[in-house]
Structure formats: structure tokens, C-alpha cells
Amino acid sequence: MPTFGWIREGDQDAFYEGTERTPDPSLAKEPSYSCPFCSSVFSRQSEFNEHVYAKHRVERPFILLHGQEPSAHAVLRSPISLSEIAVANASHAKVRLDGALPQKLSTDTLKEMISKTSQAELKLELINATEQRAAPVVTHYGISFRIAEKAELKRVEEAFWEILVSEAITRNSIGSFLADKRTQGPGREYASGLADYCLGILIKERPDDESLTTPFSRYRELYGRALDILQDFPRPLARLIASIIRFSLNNFDNGGEHTGYWELDLAIELLSNPSSARLARPHESATRRPVCPIDHGTGRMLELSKHLTAQLRWSPILDDECRTLAQSDLLDVTDHQKALAIWAASAWRLGSSDSALEPLTQIAEIYPFSRWASKYLEQVST
User: Quick one: how far is CA 190 from the chain centroid?
Assistant: First the structure.
């Protein structure tokens, strides 16, 4: 075997020597950019980027139910029609229904399946594999279908009126409601939302004959959980209670929705837009009957707004009435804020800017009342 000096040439050295090529001594070529998805070649990187973005972009697939994209662990509680389902950027889907083996479906078949499902657990993968040379983009969803028939929801409401509206709310009555045969089956989800709302009332009011160890602040958690469930049911009772909960928690994002409970609609309108011209009191009907309980703090705020919007003039007596409520140790902080806001809005509407100054100062930085209180305070202060 040939050698060079003391170095012995091996097989690998011989291979490299036979395959190496001397670099071309001419000038360096202009760089080029070859598209990995097609045969296009570009001399500039910016042109290459624009080409890939325009011709080979693989966007995230998604689905919309009732106009909104569901979360990774969504619950569907109301029926949905084909027109309310939209799928975008998806070439196909893979589904697992109630733990069965995965099925590959077209997007049209997927939409039809969703519109016909009422009680099931669905694991959904939306796949965008439109670019053959690129890795597919996948979006995962988990959807629980808990859709009850109208007759089942009506039976739940009948039990609710008999047990929790006609009688006092207690832990025993809430337990009896949940144990009633009319609240079982597909309507159980609806019943649990109504029960959470009533338990929230009980914890907020804390009656003496109930030995409660649950912290007072937990009523907000129960109200929030009830709202999360009830807002999905297209029932007048569910919509009414959802509006009451939002009012109680100082959430006026849906201020334009009317419930038919005029005291509530009046208070929401007053606190959403004190300058509104729609603050009219309808004629009270003698045929009205109670359809759901309301915690005493929220009820007191509805009475206050009803009382003050009926006044034709302002006086120090009304100031004292509002101040007493706003400083009451028995009311929650959200009710304190509402009392201040009703005080400020009512005094402002009746032209008593001096009386409005005190409550405006306290709520000017508190959302959602700051949306109008800060503007009013600036006008009073100048």
C-alpha cells in the first residue's frame, strides 16, 4: 500500500482523494432559493417568502358553533342547526364518538353529525392537509353534547317552581329538587345550574336557621357556575336568571337585552346608560307571579332603582337613604357599588350635581360604572 512519509493511506483516505473536487475559481454565483413545495426558483429571498405565503400557506383549521369557536373542552347544551356550524381551512376531520375508534369524515359529514347529536362525548381533530409536501396542521377539540328535549327541560322547571320558588330555599329543599325524578336524565344539567343559583342565594343571604360554614365569597363562584350553564339554554327562565346573575355581579355587557321583568330591565338600563330616554315605568300587572327567587341584596338594589327613577325631584332625604345602603355592613361589595351608582345616576338625572358628586367620586374608577361616572365627575368638577 502506498505511503507518504510515515502516514499510511487507508481506504477512507483513498475514497476522499478520488471524490474531492477542486472548487471553481470563478466568481461566486448569485444565491437562489428553490421552493420545497413546487419547481419555482427565486433569486431574492423576499420573493421566495412571498411565494410560499401566497401559494403554499397551510392555515389552522377551526370550527364555529353558534358563531363562536369552542374551547378545547366545550359543552353544547342547546340544539344547533346546520346553518349554525361553520368549518374553515380543513381538508377532513377525524372523530371519536363516545370512545369509539377514530373515523375519518368530510367536513360536510362532520357538520351533519354534530347537528344530529344530542347526548355524547366527541373528540374531534380538524386537519388541514392541503399541501402534500408540508406537515398537516391539526386542531383538537373536545365537545360534550348535553342537549335535552323541551319536554325534559319543562319538567325540570315544574320541579323548580314547586320546590324552590313556592317554598323557602334551604339546603334540604335544594337536595330535594336535585333528587326529584323530573330533574334526572338529560335535564340534569339544567337542574344543576338552577340548583347552583339557589345555593348561591342561600350562601349570600346566610339565614340564621342554616348553619353554613361555606365562605360568603363563594356565592360568586356558584353564581358564575350557574351562569355558565344557564346562558346556554334557550329558555325564558334560564335567560331571566342569567340576567339576574349578571346584574348581581355588576356585569352589564348585555345591557340591551330585555327580560320582561321590568324592574330588572329598568335597573340595567339606568346603570348602563343613565342618560337613556328609555327609563319608563310600565303599568304594573296584578296577574304577575314569582317565577324565580332573587337574593335580598339584589332585590334591594332593584327596589332602590325603581324608587329613585319614580322621583320628580331630589332632596337630602334621598341622599341619606342612598348613603345608608351604600355603607351597610350587610350588603356585598358589588351591592355597595350598585347603590352608589344608582345614587349617582338618579341624582344626576334630576339635576342635582352636588348630590351626585359624592357617589361619583367613589365609582369613577370602578368598572363598569367608570364608563359613564368618570365623564360625569369631570363635568361636575369643572
Answer: 17
